[in-house]
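Render this sequence as a predicted structure.
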Amino acid sequence: MPFSKNILQPILLDKLVLSLHYELMKLILRLAINVFALVVVDYLLPGFSLANLQTAIVAAIVIGIVNTFIKPLVQLIALPISLLTFGITAFLINVLLLWLSSKVVPGFAIDTFTTAILASIVLSLVSLFLHQQAYH
């Protein structure tokens, strides 16, 4: 006797709910790692300041949105220059987008371009380390 559509629907719905739950947990973990990385950079670098934990959470969300939607477009437009400069342009795009994020989020400040460069490097290294620890 073949399975009826009514029997399979709850099974498929359960799988969908579990899949969405798993993806949401991954998103929350990534957000927590990025918030912690921002707090570490705030602690290590003078000139990089977060007013409080709420600011760090909002900054992590804004940086995530910027990196997801704006960064790929800017990198695509700057690809020829990036190839000529062996990736230095891609790094500078990352720095500028971090600086831009600090201008958008109240309570998040980066004082100088040099601080933005150092913050981008430290933030990348801390995030990389924490992501490797979380997923391995």
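Summary. The beta strands are 48-50, 108-110. The first strand starts at residue 48 and ends at 50.
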